[in-house]
Amino acid sequence: MARKKSEEVKQGAPEWMATYGDLVTLLLCFFVLLFSFSTIDNNKFKAIIQSMQGSLGVLDSGVIVQIDPLISTFPGDTDAEEEEFVKINEQVNNFIEENDLENSVTLILDERGLLIRLLDATLFDSGKAEIRNEAKFIIERLSDIIKQSGKSIRIEGHTDNMPINTYKFPSNWELSTTRAVNVLKYLIELKSIEPYRLSAVGYGEYHPIDTNDTSEGRQKNRRVDMMILRTEKDGE
Q1: Residue 187 lies in a domain
Q2: Is the pLDDT confidence value at 212 over 90?
């Protein structure tokens, strides 16, 4: 009786492994494409990659995902916007130094954007909301920089805690709000800045930056803040 030939043993990995590997590679490409259209930050992407490692069993064997170049191509890059705000800050600061306005105008660059702080005595007479003629050149020069930035602007009016009760301004709420609105209107009328980029708010006496127990502190609290907003802060 003839002996049956022994079954030939195939060399290498099972055939299903090739199909499985192709499937996982396609899934990886799919997720990378999704990622390229998103605005996910670097830390979140690293977390995704780490979660995929070990669960798919593919990345550890040699597939390399380059993170930094992909992140840097995202629209609205925070580094680019930061450089833009540094440039705006330098432009405003040069204007302040050229016109000896260090005691009247303060700049603060923070997470909200660039804050241009003007003491009320620089812009208004006591208890009034009409912009002084001598102060209009300040807004005119600032408006050039604001218009070029293309950013949204929020005008914030503030007072001290000294009560006011006139026919026009029954309280500090009305005074602070009217001052902010008048600055906003002047920006629109002067440089035709798009109204949708501008907003105005009056905080009255309730957001002091110094004590109201001294005349110096009250003077600092009476102010108008022009905030050039970062993109992610628009509408907040």
Answers
A1: yes
A2: yes
